[in-house]
Amino acid sequence: MDIPLHNTTAPQGQLVSFPLAAQTQPSRSQLDNIKAQLDLVLLALEALLGIGSEAVLQAAIELNLQDVVGDRVALWRLRQSNPLRRGTGGRKKLDIEEALSLVMISCYLAQQHQAIIREAVGLLETLADTHRQPHQVALLGDYLDNFTNTYQDRMTEDALSTDALTDLALKLLIDLLFYSNNQGPRRLWMALLDRASHPAT
Fold first, then answer.
1. Which end of the chain offers a freer environment for a tag, N or C, measured as fewer CB atoms within 10 Å?
2. 3 by DSSP, 3-state: which?
């Protein structure tokens, strides 16, 4: 199986591929964890950039992935497969092709908005040096509020505490910077596999 990668030196929407080695193909149990992780990455993008399903669907079109993510219903079902979400109406399985498509879309969106992601991470580094809190800066404060409110609205009642959600949101923000470069899809895919293999870490 190949994982499609966006080539930033090629025309928009053109894809290149690299072989997905046997050791990088997830098991069914790993996929159960991966679908939750992917939903969180997309949630972080939403919270920081204010994007919605239209932006995700447009990215799918530009990446020639509309056969997998073709409309709002298809996208909802893919994201609703996250076992942490409220409700039972979504699909409970996510196949490798769907997972890779969401990886591509997430990294493509991160790449499109890399400047904002860099600004947010830069602010976070500056705050750490001055011992100030992220909520004291508008961009980071809005991001954390959006992330926390959306997470609490969508996820199950046994969700994380506010402090834990802040830590998760900031970690995802830093991760987005790595996913926004040319090697983003590979980095995200390998990170998903690692977290799926060690879910407690």
1. C
2. strand
